[in-house]
Task: structure prediction
Amino acid sequence: MFLDRASGRLASTMDERYLALAVPFFVVSMVGEAWLSKRTGKRYYRLHDTVGSLGCGIGQTLLGFWMNVVVVAAYAWVANAAPWRLPARPGSCGLAASSASTSAIIGSIARVIA
Result:
């Protein structure tokens, strides 16, 4: 995810779109593997392996989400706990154009945390 400066909203990257398109393929593959295993009588498909793999994938996704929440919250806390504020002057650094949107994001996060 990244901040789209034109709209001011969070936007998805192409990688997330590809993953969303691949999920139906994964489901069809698991169903096909189970069907083939039952039809041939061989044990290609084992339910506990599938449940374990899905659990690891869901756990990794949730852990990644909450780690991002912790990092953003820590960043907001540090930004608000600073003993001084540096004025943003146009042309003083390359990030001056995005300082307003960054301040808005940090302010909204700080209001949610507080």
Notes: The first helix runs from residue 14 to 40. The two ends are 24 Å apart (CA to CA). The chain has a mean pLDDT of 75. The longest strand covers residues 2-4.
